[in-house]
Structure formats: structure tokens, C-alpha cells
Amino acid sequence: MATIGVFDSGSGGLSVLREIRKLLPESRFIYYSDNAYCPYGEKTAEFVTDRSRAVTDLLLSKGADVIVVACNTATAAAIATLRAEYKVPFVGMEPAVKPAASGTRSGVVGVLATAGTLRAPKYLNTKGQYADAVKIAERVGKGFVELVENLDLDSPHAESVVRASLQPLLDEGADTVVLGCTHYPFLLPLMQKIAPDGVRFIDPAPAVARRLVDVLDTAGLARESSSPGVELLASGTDTTLRKLFTIL
Ligand code: DGL
Q: Is 71 a catalytic residue?
């Protein structure tokens, strides 16, 4: 009977938990928002690795058998270290450049992610594999994490913040945009409003959820729990976390 720990720098990882629960509705989850230290995207890899260790220790102390790093920035900075230092399995985020590269018709793939993700070797390697096949245009989703943490998902201010990072990708010809940060799917309705019809947005969360199911099965961990549900924890105030959870 597995307990699945899930963490992010804030509430963004709920977009991953949502997809996981579609596949594992009878499982038990502990979700940890490290929002006292959010955003991770502008911090050093060392800082994000230290926080990822601290959150892992806490989730393990609460009985987690497997941990989902529902944060692209923490995956890029820390997952190799976590896997080397801990015995439990970790499932991380993959920037969905591969499905984007095979789906684009214009030959231009847009990637929206944090600064930490875009400069990480993990992302640069992935990108390098597709550099010959497609053009990759990137932008940091500047201010996106703050919008989500402030629950500002559809105001005129939110629209102008989202437009400022998305429009340059569209102007470069991107017809497929990778959501490379787990906060960004909460801004998808705004992005769809801004982008012309036919632009596709790719959220890697469903693929991560499928990977988690494989990892549970391989580790011999039961999918169902006798006490299914989600425990929500945060290092800072948990108001946003609880609100976003109710509208998932
Ligand atoms: N949600 C995170 C990610 O997927 C991090 C956002 C941040 O804290 O900067 O990258």
C-alpha cells in the first residue's frame, strides 16, 4: 500500500497531481508546497538541491514510498543527486521537447520554462537532440509563477504578463509550445486566448503520471491504499494550495 509523495516549489505541482489522480484515484498522496522558498526558478542549482533534500526528508518521515518531483526546476537541478542519495524511487518532469518536435508543422517549437530549467544541462542535452530537426525558441515565463501563487489566473494584468512571454514565441513562428514549468498549465486558458487557433500547448504531466504507474508496478508497490486521498502541506501559508486544489 503505497504512499506517494509529491512536491514542488509551490502549488504548480498540483497540475501534475491532477493527472496522476486520473490514473491512481485510489492511492494516498502527500503533496508538499515549498512555498516559503518559492520561486525556485531564479535560485542556484545548489539551493534548489538543498531544498529538494529537505523536502524529501520530510516526505519520507511521513511515510512516502515514492517521490514525484513535480517541478521542472527541481528535477533539472536535483533529481540525479536525490537518486544517488536516497533509496526510494523518484519520478521527475521531462521537458516535452520530443512530442513537440514530432508534432510541429511550422518547424518551430516554443518552450516556456524557468531560468533554472533553461540553463540546466538536463534541458540543454534534450534540446541538443532536436536542434537539427526543428528550431527551438525559448522564453522564461516571467512572472507566471507569481500569478499562480497569487491566484491571479484571468485578470487583465495576468493576460498582459502572459502575453509578454508568449507573444515573442508566436512571433518566431512557434505552433507548438511546451509548458516547461508545472505552474504554467494553470495559465493555459489565458495562453489559448492569446494564441491563434491551431497553436498546441504540451503539458508533460500525463506522461509523468504514466511513468509513475510503471514505477509503482516495477517496485511492487500497490496502487490502491486503504486510506486514499491527499494530504496538503506547505512550508509557508497554505491558502493558495487549498484554493487551487478545490478547483483542480
Ligand atoms: N513549478 C516549478 C517548475 O516546474 C518551479 C517554479 C518556480 O518556483 O520558479 O519549474
A: yes
Range of the domain at 188: 97-202
Radius of gyration of the chain (CA): 17
Separation of CA 40 and ligand 1 centre (Å): 6
Do 57 and 110 reside in the same domain of the chain? Answer: no
Residue in the structure block whose three cell numbers are 504554467? 184
Query: CATH no. for residue 105?
Result: 3.40.50.1860
Block means of pLDDT (10 residues each) for the chain, 248 residues, are 94 98 97 98 97 98 97 98 98 94 97 97 93 95 98 98 98 98 98 97 98 96 92 98 95
Tell whether 104 and 39 lie within a shared domain: no
Same-domain check for residues 113 and 151: yes
DSSP at 178:
E
- The pLDDT of residue 79 is 97
Pocket test for ligand 1, best of 7, 43, 72 (most atoms within 8 A of CB): 72
How far, in Å, is the centroid of ligand 1 from the Cα of 220? 30
Q: What angle in degrees, to the nearest 10, is found between the helix axes of 14-23 and 205-219?
A: 50
Q: What pLDDT is attached to residue 95? A: 86
Same domain, 135 and 88: no
User: Does 167 share its domain with 188?
Assistant: yes
Ligand 1 proximity of 75 Cβ (cutoff 6 Å): no
Cα 75–Cα 120–Cα 39 angle in degrees, nearest 5: 60
